[in-house]
Every structure is written in C-alpha cells, then in structure tokens.
Structure of Phytoene synthase:
Amino acid sequence: MSERFTPAPVRSGDYSGDPRAPAAKADIEACKQILAAGSKSFAAASLLLPKRMRGPAAAFYAFCRIADDLVDFSDDPSAAVTELGARLDRIYANTPDDDPVDRAFSRVVLGHAIPRTIVDALIEGFEWDADERDYETLPGLLGYCARVASAIGVVMTLLMGPREARTLARACDLGAAMQLTNICRDVLEDAERGRLYLPAAWLRERGIDPGHFVTNIHDYAGDPRVAETIEALLREADEYYLRANAGLAMLPRDCRPAIRAASLIYSDIGRVIREQGCDPIQDRAHTSKARKLWLLLRAWVRRTPPSLAVHADAPVIDACAYLVDAISQPQALRP
C-alpha cells in the first residue's frame, strides 16, 4: 500500500465500538480505532475528508490493514489469500463474518457499488509482496503499483461519487505516484529486508548487479549510479503527480482538499529525497510536522490549481486499465 503500516499484526476482534451505539456506527468506530493504532497518517489526513466519507473510508482502510497483516504475518501466505477470498465472498454476498470490519466493509462495497475486481487487485498486491516478487522493468513495477496503490485510489474515488473513466484514470496516477515515491524513500529499508523494488534492469544498465546491491546496500553510499536510478523513478512519479493534480477539478469540491493534501505531502517527500542527493543510505526522507501542517493548510485554502489538457486527458496507465474497465462492466459486484 501507499503508506507503510506499523509492523504489528492487527486483528479486528481486538477492537469494538461502543456497545450502546447502533450496530453500523459501532462497527465504524471499531474501524477508526484500528486506524488510530496503526495508521496515524491516514487517521489525521481523514479529517480533511468530508464527514460523509470518513466512515466509509475508515471501513475500507481498516479492511486493507487487516488483510495486509493477515498475509504478511501468515506462515502460508497463499492459504491466507485463499482465506481472504472466501471472506470477500461473504462480504459481497451481504453475509459477512461476525466481525466489525467485515460488517462495515460489506455495507461500503454494496452501498457504493465497489467492483470485486478492485478489491481482488489489492489482495493480489499483498500476495505479490509475500511472494517477494521482483520487478525487472518499469511496466512490471507499475503492475505492482496498480494493485497496492492505484486500486486504493479507485475505491476512494468511488466513495467520493465519480465513476467516469477519465477521473478514475487520474486516481490511478496519484496512487502510482505515491507508491513510486515510497519506493524511492524506502530503498535502504527494503534492501535490509532482502527486497528490491527499483527496476532491476535500470540498475544493470548502470553497471550494478541487483543481487549485490540488495545484499551490500551500504557499499553503495553516495554512488551516483544509484542516485541516477532513484532520480529517474522520481521523474516518473513527478509526471504522474501532474496528471493526478489535473484530476482534482473532476472531484466533488468537498473532497478536493484531502486529495490535494495527499498529493502535496507525498510529492514533498520526493523533494527531501533529492535534497539528500538521492542517496538511500541517508536518513529516511520525511516531511516535518511543521511542513506537513503548512501543506495541509495550503491544500485547504488554495483553489484547485490549473492543469494542462495533456495531463487531464492522458490515457490510463496500461497496468491500471483493467481497474478502470471494471467500473463499467455489468455485474461488476459479483465475486
């Protein structure tokens, strides 16, 4: 996903809403508790969402958290994915498990007509992570971004209301941009876990063996070839941010500040990475609290920025086309 959650397994049964509250409200409260414990950035950013969206968004992100942990912390990720598939069958059949997250998410997917294809894509992305899949090229990496990030953008857009392909394509762009930024930020952290998300072919083109890079990451401190690779990926992200920002005007007015804030905050991480020379051995790039507050304020008070038609009308990322197509397909809710 576009935000890395704290590395601790979360089980929705550990949380419960106020037993005196109506069932639906109590389930949403439990979802918000999960996010407050494990996803503080989302919990804070959600305050910029219109009130009508906060409950559905909390249910969706809580399910993502539970699903991600179920796969991440399983001794058998394939079995966990199978279990999630059966769980989703029941969610989409309006017979969810007796679990606050499943009940809340079932109301969301049925009430907002979220195609099963989109949620399945997200689960597949978790499975790819568990399988430690490698990404040789940028198109392959964008396939991963489509699943773990762009799928989230599509769901969030559907929760806002728009279902037009052009708008959804821009949501896919923002998801991809944010995930590529995350990848550039987390090169060291990923290598220490034995993972590489930078396109392996890009490293080879610069004379770096990807396997050696991962196992000897500290040997590459200040290496201009690594910096060139990270800068190249940041440029890709820059283009997707421009395309995503062109989609802001396509969203309901009450939703624009939150999405604008997400774009500003994540793209600002790219600025910090560049200030550090695109050196992955430097301190993990982050936006300071003061800077983040300023960006939130900027997103709230400034008008939606103008955009170019070349960005607003750009085609959907190839790897994301099936996500957008799923919205217009008949019987899209069926498992």
Remarks:
- Residues 138-160 form the longest helix (23 residues).
- Residues 1-11, 15-21 have pLDDT under 50 and may be disordered.
- Residues 22-111 form one domain.
- Residues 153 and 171 are 5 Å apart (CA to CA).
